[in-house]
Automatic annotation (TrEMBL):
The keyword Hydrolase does not apply. It holds the Pfam family Aminotran_5. This is Molybdenum cofactor sulfurase. The active site is at 485. GO terms for biological process: Mo-molybdopterin cofactor biosynthetic process. It catalyses: Mo-molybdopterin + L-cysteine + AH2 = thio-Mo-molybdopterin + L-alanine + A + H2O.
């Protein structure tokens, strides 16, 4: 690595290695880089939380017993601990416990008074109701019910004045913030979307603004909630809400917190003179800018995970927080911090258990609790999880010394990784990575813990993010890809226009899928994000993966664009000192890089992802040179009775309705119905099935241990046995539970709890046609996509040659054949000619070719050991394109009788697309 990049490795102010050793020993061999999604919980926190529960007797806070009082006191203490963490007090902020930041935003959107203060009436004035609070409530005097009588609501719409508010949001926001548009628009609010550049233009030029009203006190604001219209009548003020993210969860870019005060003082007033998104040709009222009281939602879910938020300095009205992003546990728990100036603008239409002082079941009359959090915490709080919040905050404080230290460390990690990736060049000088944003200002005040990027080929075209994710799994790197629940930032940085977005959707791409490229352009990107327990080893593992898997030719490091400021290296370790900064261009000899222990020295990988098509000319049957291309023949028939376990090689076998008889008729599922595969559990390859036709048994063995189950359910057992469910390639499957004995055996040998062996009962329809986008109507077993998977030994040998030339691994032909888990293995002909096949005839059986098989990281599993290696994935990607197609899917199109068989002696014939022209 260039010396300039090494100088960016600044040690943290706390002992990361000690933290990992004491609290994250389970990370051995893993590189977790997805902290923006959820950080990791520490052993210390879990032990402290468990000890507190074990030593306490806690009851439902809504009861009146002493154990209930104990729970209430703990909840109150945690509420205060949260306020302390954000450097504020209960006089300024209230803490409403929620299920997370999303629910907190939902509370604001659904209960914010979008109409301003509305005039209402009852028969005697005792009941106060507004648009935001249609449930009649009794007026309180000093927190007590007034002595005046309570009457049913008599509502006169002619005496109510409506004032519609406005909702303004930054384009680069989490989906949960965008969701606030719905309730806002439904309540008549004008909706506006501004890009970050527009916000900077409007807000940064506003140096100082006088307050429109005394915004620091609720009573003062309420006294001035209306103004005199020119005719002398009272005109209600609009309630306007601005929502933005303190740190973008897509790019890691931080937005200025000074915006909070500027917006509250009216800096966004000019925006309201524009046309709102939801009201085409709407009449814009005059003087709208003078009618607004502005409130600010600061989405701090991502920011507070690694950065300090001082609410004594910055005073947003609403702050949603998710605790699992800060310290990992518990999930499903967050809070909404509400500033006292906004306590009265949250109305309530629903009252759950514990949130009222009195409610009459015979009339629509209720008295909500006067304290804000009591009013909004419907039902029973998660009082057994809430104590873990204090344990989590204490743990990270003890480990790191506070959020400021965490903020600096994760920034240093992100900057080092970002600058290294941006410095990588292919052998032809082209950049390896496109980072987002492309020209970020890397300062701890403006950039956080996130690095977002796409991989580029040497010709400037993109590598799909799902491809990067597959390779990352080989290196045990855990990251995130896609649009990351931030469509605005994704569309901005990837330059996805409105028209392109619709085209991508019509092409089949939806949020969260693996459809990473549409017409060569990315639909999402790759994101890594650091947490307080990450070290430079994690960053270097990612950089190693990029170098070994995606660099074409010799790696060039161009660090000429990097400016290393003295302040960035003042804490560098002694071994970094004295190195010059003049070294700006370095050619790295890839022979000095090393892979995993069972692989040879890594050399330059030439031509990675040169093309999405094969680099070998397609050959068809009538063009073969008979002297160099022997006729096709069937060499292997392999069935896999249990999905993702070892196969059985046979010379002859019966054909069933779903393919080879007993092929993938069983699968291993968890108690919740999750299907286990080698993709996540490679040691499944060590389970070796065998079929005893004489005794009607399926036998399973694992390292000398064995167990057997009937091939067919016994008479009546299907009716009496329990059913279990699973999911295969999106299909919900119902199957027969083969019993607790085999389930316990599987749980023990695979070291996974509550496993079951499930036998197929219901039919599945096919998923592929010759174009890969439909169905031929054939039945499927538990196989993912097709009845038969066919590979070609000529192609295996070509791939083996490519692997050998690169010197990345030593494999035999049979070892490589076993990696692709084919049902039918053919030999003869030319490499990759199967890409052009349309039909395959084996004896009397006719098969329709349904397209190439896209390969995943399962081809890296060594069947004999259950371990992973990087080949053949690396070479597949280099020679077969982004989707690493190898082998073909096929379905039987002939009518199949019960006693039909297939044999290695079957005559093989093919027709290709060239034959049909």
């Amino acid at each position: 690595m260039a010396a300039v990049l090494e100088k960016l490795k600044i040690p943290p102010n706390y002992d990361v290695e000690r933290v990992i050793k004491e609290d994250f020993d389970r990370l051995k061999g893993h590189y977790y880089l997805d902290h923006a999604a959820a950080t990791l919980y520490s052993d210390s926190q879990i032990q402290a939380a468990s000890a507190e529960l074990q030593n306490s007797l806690l009851g439902n806070p809504h009861s009146r017993s002493c154990v209930s009082d104990a729970a209430t006191r703990i909840v109150d203490s945690v509420r205060q601990r949260i306020l302390d963490h954000f450097n504020t007090t209960a006089d300024e902020y209230d803490v409403i416990f929620t299920s997370g930041a999303t629910q907190a935003l939902k509370i604001v959107a659904e209960h914010f008074n979008w109409h301003g203060s509305e005039e209402t009436c009852t028969e005697n004035g005792d009941i106060n109701i507004s648009k935001n609070n249609p449930e009649p409530t009794i007026q309180l005097e000093n927190g007590h019910v007034s002595n005046s009588s309570v009457q049913e609501e008599v509502f006169d719409s002619h005496r109510k004045e409506k004032t519609h508010g406005a909702f303004v949001y930054a384009m680069e926001n989490h989906t949960s913030v965008l969701g606030m548009r719905g309730p806002a628009a439904a309540n008549g609010a004008d909706v506006y979307c501004l890009q970050t550049e527009q916000l900077h233009h409007v807000l940064d030029k506003c140096k100082t603004l006088p307050s429109k009203t005394n915004l620091n006190h609720t009573d003062a604001r309420e006294k001035d909630n209306s103004v005199r219209a020119p005719n002398g009548s009272r005109k209600k003020k609009r309630h306007c809400l601005f929502a933005y993210s303190a740190q973008c969860n897509f790019s890691g870019v931080k937005s200025p917190l000074v915006w909070i005060d500027k917006v509250q003082k009216g800096a966004l007033d000019p925006v309201l003179k524009r046309q709102p998104l939801n009201k085409n040709n709407a009449h814009l009222p005059e003087n709208t800018a003078d009618d607004c009281i502005w409130y600010v939602v600061l989405d701090a879910a991502g920011f507070t995970a690694t950065c300090p938020l001082d609410l004594s300095q910055w005073k947003p009205d609403f702050v949603p927080v998710s605790f699992y992003k800060i310290f990992g546990y518990p999930t499903g728990l967050g809070c909404l911090l509400v500033h006292q100036r906004a306590w009265t603008v949250l109305g309530k239409t629903y009252f759950g258990g514990g949130s009222v002082l009195m409610i009459d079941s015979r009339r629509i009359v209720a008295v909500p609790r006067p304290v804000l959090h009591d009013k909004f915490e419907d039902g029973t709080l998660a009082f057994l999880n809430i104590p873990a919040v204090r344990n989590g905050l204490d743990t990270i404080e003890n480990h790191t010394g506070g959020m400021k230290n965490i903020q600096q460390h994760v920034f240093n990690l992100a900057r080092y990784t970002h600058h290294s990736l941006r410095s990588f060049r292919h052998g032809n000088g082209a950049p390896v990575v496109e980072a987002y944003p492309k020209d970020a200002n890397w300062d701890v005040r403006t950039q956080g813990s996130i690095v977002n990027f796409s991989i580029l080929k040497s010709d400037g075209t993109y590598v799909g993010y799902s491809q990067v994710e597959k390779f990352a799994s080989l290196y045990n790197i855990h990251l995130r890809t896609g649009c990351l629940c931030n469509p605005g930032a994704c569309q901005k940085y990837l330059d996805i226009s409105e028209e392109t977005l619709i085209q991508q959707f019509k092409a089949g791409h939806v949020c969260g899928d693996a459809h990473d490229l549409v017409e060569g352009l990315p639909t999402g990107s790759v994101r890594i994000s650091f947490g307080y327990m990450n070290s430079y080893k994690d960053a270097d593992q990612l950089l190693q993966m990029v170098k070994e898997c995606f660099v074409e030719g010799n790696l060039i490091i161009d660090s000429s664009w990097i400016e290393v400021q003295p302040c960035l290296v003042e804490k560098e370790s002694h071994h970094m000192r004295g190195q010059t900064e003049s070294e700006k261009l370095e050619i790295v000899n890839r022979n000095e890089e090393h892979c995993d222990g069972d692989e040879s020295t890594v050399r330059t990988i030439n031509g990675y992802l040169d093309s999405d098509v094969t680099n070998t000319p397609l050959q068809v049957e009538n063009e073969r040179n008979v002297t160099s291309a022997p006729p096709l023949k069937l060499t292997n028939i392999i069935l896999y009775p249990v999905k993702s376990c070892s196969g059985i090689s046979v010379r002859e076998w019966s054909i069933g309705e779903e393919g080879l008889k007993y092929d993938r008729q069983w699968m291993i599922v968890t108690n919740s119905g999750t299907t286990l595969t080698q993709k996540r559990l490679p040691i499944m390859s060590l389970i070796k099935p065998s079929i005893d036709m004489i005794n009607g048994l399926l036998k399973l063995s694992f390292k000398g241990e064995s167990i057997a189950v009937p091939l067919e359910p016994q008479d009546g057992s299907t009716r009496d046995a329990s059913l279990c469910r699973g999911v295969v390639c999106g299909d919900r499957i119902r199957g027969h539970d083969c019993g607790p004995e085999v389930g316990a055996w599987l749980s023990r040998v695979l070291q996974q709890p509550d496993l079951k062996l499930m036998q197929q009962l219901n039919k599945r329809t096919g998923k592929l046609d010759s174009k890969g986008n439909g169905s031929l109507g054939e039945s499927l077993s538990f196989a993912n996509e097709s009845q038969y998977l066919v590979i070609h030994r000529a192609s295996v040998r070509k791939l083996l040659q490519d692997i050998s030339e690169k010197g990345l691994a030593k494999l035999t032909e049979e070892e490589l054949v076993s990696r692709f888990r084919a049902n039918l293995v053919l030999d003869g002909g030319e490499p990759y000619e199967e890409d052009s096949w349309e039909e395959l005839l084996l004896g009397k059986l006719r098969f329709k070719v349904q397209g190439g098989c896209n390969r995943c990281q399962m081809v890296g599993v060594i069947p004999e050991t259950g371990e992973r290696m990087k080949e053949p994935m690396i070479t597949l990607a280099a020679t077969r394109g982004s989707y690493m197609k190898f082998g073909i899917h096929a379905a039987a199109v002939s009518s199949v009788s019960i006693d039909e068989t297939i044999s290695v002696r079957s005559k093989v014939r093919v027709t290709s697309n060239a034959d049909l022209m």
